[in-house]
Amino acid sequence: MARGIEIREAHFPGRAPIEAYGNGGFRFADMSHRGSILCLPSGIYGWDVTEGDALDASLFEKVLAEAGDIEFLLVGTGMSIRFLPAELKTSLRAGNVSSDPMSTGAAVRTYNVMLAESRAVAAALIAV
């Protein structure tokens, strides 16, 4: 019986530094991903967010689910810095997660340094 192509949610089961970013995606662990990503303790996930989307708390459910393993969340907001909504900051703070919005490039560089230092870091990175 012939089956069609099965499309699964993008997920890399591990922690890896971001090797490159730009052209609408990211490269990590010798793979590439087009679109935005969430880098969490449980792995790297495709994230359906584009620059300019409202950053409401519902987009960060995976982050909040792993809040016990995260101390710092770096939010790469695209080409320029955007402030995080108060509701989102409150939700993160309730999980003892400090959040820091910055351009995606700055977030990638900071994430790689903190990951190399074995810090409890996560990143939400909007593709540029």
UniProtKB/TrEMBL annotation:
It comes from Hoeflea ulvae. Coiled coil: none annotated. This is Mth938-like domain-containing protein. CDD domains: Mth938-like. It holds the Pfam family DUF498. It comes from the Bacteria. Transmembrane segments: none annotated. InterPro entries: MTH938-like_sf, NDUFAF3/AAMDC.
